[in-house]
Amino acid sequence: MTASSARLGRVPELPEVQALVDFLAERTVGLAVTGVELGSFSVLKTFDPPPQALTGAPVDAVSRHGKFIDIDCDGVHLIFHLARAGWLRWSDAVPNTVLRPGKSPIALRVRFSDSSGFDLTEAGTKKRLAAYLVRDPQEVPGIASLGPDPLAPEFTREAFGQLLAGRRSQIKGLLRDQGFIAGVGNAYSDEILHVAKMSPFAMAASLDDEAVDRLYAALRDTLAAAVATASGKPAKELKDAKRAGMRVHGRTGETCPVCGDIVREVSFADSSLQYCATCQTGGKPLADRRMSRLLK
Question: Which of 57, 63, 276, 296 would bridge 74 by S-S if both were Cys, CB 3.0 to 4.6 A apart?
Answer without folding.
Answer: 57
